Amino acid sequence: MNNHTLNVLDYLTIKETISTYAMTDSGKQRVLAIMPLSNVKQIQALLSETDEAAAILEKSSSVPISGLEGIEIIVKQFNKGVALRPHHFSQLLSFIEDGLKMKRFMRDKEMLAPRVSSYVNGIEELPEIAEEITRCIRNGRVDDMAGKELSKVRKQLAIANDRLKEKLNSIVKSPKYKSYLQDSIVSERGGRLCVSLKREYKGKIRGTILDASASGSTLYVEPEDAASVQDQINLLLSQEELEAEKILSYLTGLAESHEKQLLQSIEVMVHYDVLFAKAKYSRVIDGRAPAVHDQKMISLKNARHPLLGSKAVPLTIEIGKDFQALVITGPNTGGKTVVLKTVGLLVLMAQSGFHIPADKESSIGIYQQILLDIGDGQSIEQNLSTFSSHMTNIISILKKTNEYSLVLLDELGSGTDPGEGMGLASVILQKIHQKGATLLATTHYSEIKDFAEKEEGFINGSMDFDIETLQPTYKLKIGVGGESQAFSIALRLGMHPELIEKAHAITYKETKKYGKEQYDLYEKKELDKQISVNRYKKKQTKAKEAEVQTFIKGDNVLLKATNEHGIVYSGPDKGGNYTVFVKGTKQSINHKRIQLHISAEELYPEDYDFDIIFESAENRKKAAQMQKRHSNLTIERDQ
């Protein structure tokens, strides 16, 4: 599927919408990377997954999917010679615990969703890592009890800090120094504790000046008695950092040794995220899985375009069984384009494993490509007119089309002279159908109705129009070609039915009764007639394919290339060619290019003199005279 098709059919918009229901960044990216498949079994498996995920959501609206906060980044830092930080291990523990929650959640879903629930077996419990992280990391730091040496150092640190504070508190609370100090609070400068001394009393407290206030009126002094204790504390802090780093390195190595299991658990969680994102979207659009098969048939029951929401008018359409090409005629603004986009989009969604907004009886054939010409498509860069742009696109479609293609053509033949446009539209439709594609096309040329009615494999369609409200209903009718609705409007506004019937006869060269009952009956007859004709033609085609048909002199045959009738004169020769009498001339035509219309046995009695048909009156007269021994006569015949 090319990007142009995906964009025009709003497939990319659908994926973006589904991605918003994913809880992880990886899940969102995974949804956006989904593309339609063409393997039936793979598609069926994807739809089955979505079915099961939707069933789980129906029973339990909340699924414990891990948000994977930081876990993927953590795994990427493995084996780089750098120990993870305490907050990394807190995130890792949270992920392991989320995996356990998912395993417990899926435990009773085996009957409801056997395939989806089984995926949870890919999540590793990793009890050793969980226990060690719990033992060693607490409140975002390495716990005191994580190691004996660390515990010993921290106890010494606590004692030293208490001694330091005691010494400094004795100074700030002493009446001896009260008048020298700016306040009775122990301060800190550069990681060392000190007291605030008024500048004018510099030297009254022996020690090291660490800093001064912005105004210079206050000096921050570390007393001599406190300096030795502070140095001891700094040494202990270095020892503490070293011991904590040993613990973090140990935990990092433990996590790295389970990298494969962690990656597998992440993959399972991301897959669940994608599955339930699809299931959540299915609930929003009231979606269902259509049946999928490798036959080139589409059957949609009450289907809706997912982006139209409640505004969407249900679409019921079946193509591929009794006919392979649907031509929707009639005026613009009736919803013809929406029909094409709905069919195309729902095929793409189904082939991607997404539920579609349609009844469960719907079914969709699998197509390797969807080719379309929808919209203006004018190219400023190429300086092409609208018509030229359409033709450039359609020529490309004609080259690419095959029996595995779904072709969607909107307003075929528009943008040029109506007569030429109608002619082009006819041959384009015919060629695409001959290539075996499934075809849906719209056009405003009413003459195309006659073409679709007569052409094998085609059927007419139109968008319904409410003659009571004089408004389109946007409902598709199959079997009846579209009209401008001018006659229906005139009838609704009070014009006498007889006048409208005469106008219809002049316009369409057919009779039609106007009035609701007659109109409904007409529609049903049209649909039945077209389906019957297509079924008959299919049987005829299959019969012709099953055996090579032979002809005898006098058979009335149809010339496939020109749609003309002729009468078999002689044949076949070694190449399978027959001499056929067509419009007064004899032509040599291969047996594959003619088909029996009416047999000679049905047309003529036994011992019928075919010279009456094949010979001119003059030649027959000469033949009679020659039989009477007028040997100087010659008979001239067309070769």
From TrEMBL:
PROSITE patterns: DNA_MISMATCH_REPAIR_2. It comes from Metabacillus idriensis. Pfam families: MutS_V. GO terms for molecular function: ATP binding; ATP hydrolysis activity; ATP-dependent DNA damage sensor activity; endonuclease activity; mismatched DNA binding; rRNA binding. Residues 405-421 form the DNA mismatch repair proteins mutS family domain. Signal peptide: none annotated. This is Endonuclease MutS2. One of its GO terms (biological process) is negative regulation of DNA recombination. Keywords: ATP-binding, DNA-binding, Endonuclease, Hydrolase, Nuclease, Nucleotide-binding, RNA-binding, rRNA-binding.
